[in-house]
Amino acid sequence: MNDQIKEFYFDRDDEIEQIGKRTMRKHSHTHFEIYFITKGNCVYFIENKVYHLMPGDIIMIPAGVMHNTQYQNTVYSRMLISCSDHFIPEIAKPRLDSLLHLYRNPNIADEISEIFKKIEIEYANTDEMSEEIFKCYTSMLFFLLLRNPNLCSPQEDRHYIDYALEYLQTNFTSDITLSDIASRYFVSPEHFSRVFKQRTGFNFSEYLNILRLQKAEQMLKQLNTAPITEIAESCGFNDSNYFSLKFKKYFGVSPKRFQIHNKEYK
């Protein structure tokens, strides 16, 4: 398998029985990811939105986009493609936004499945022609999706937690408590906390910290001489020591070391 094909990855989880709920840690990938669910249900959390997948759905996640997955108490199966831009047709790239993140059109689910199966067969028996064959199959997939409208309305399956996520995305630097956010949607803090975890896979405080830490990461890159305490306060952390502990746990390095490293390489 040549180096270029190493930028193309296929995986299949078939007929897996999931006992209870399992949530993956929030992460991102270096390549474009296409996820096709064929049986069961799962929840995808991408940036500040929650998507509930059913068989025949596709999730598309560009490189570098943070996401996590929560599998429900069910039997499920899925197929996955991860590829570099090399395998995405040029004419499709400016139109990818119309496919993000959830694509749902049951009218072409069988055709989508056939393309994935052909890719799976080729992936198991690669040779010197496989790279071009993968490009043909991924082109067929993108053209099929782009020629057929996405029937999933952006407002479909909206829940008050979805609105809460949007509110947090905009106001995360403010002093927001669980009681504050629950009262906005006329539910108890206990109920909000339970439903929030069910739909996102995160505790409320964990999610709020992630938003703040991601903002802090951006500020540390842009303001490489700003005091750490100032950046912590700007991102909603009142205690700079607590901020440093959380930042190191999330990024694997202290905020000061992160700032110095980015300053050296600018």
User: Low-confidence parts, pLDDT < 50 over ≥5 residues?
Assistant: none
Amino-to-carboxy terminus distance: 36 Å
Helical coverage, percent range: 40-55%
How many β-strand runs? 9
> Order of helices and strands, N to C?
EEEEEEEEEHHHHHHHHH
Measured by DSSP, the beta-strand proportion falls in: 15-25%
Q: Let me know the average pLDDT.
A: 85
Strand order, biggest sheet? Answer: 1-8-3-6-9
Provide an overview of this structure:
The protein starts with 7 loop residues before the first strand and ends with a helix. It has helices at 109-124, 130-147, 160-171, 178-184, 189-200, 204-222, 228-234, 240-251, 255-264, and strands at residues 8-17, 22-23, 32-39, 42-46, 49-53, 58-61, 67-71, 75-83, 102-103. Strand 4 and strand 5 (49-53) form a beta hairpin. The strands form 2 sheets. A 5-stranded antiparallel sheet has the order 1-8-3-6-9, covered by helices on one side. The protein has a 4-stranded antiparallel sheet with strand order 2-7-4-5. With 266 residues, it is α+β, with helices and mostly antiparallel strands. Helix 1 (109-124) packs antiparallel against helix 2 (130-147). The protein contains 9 helices and 9 strands. The model has no long low-confidence stretch (mean pLDDT 85).
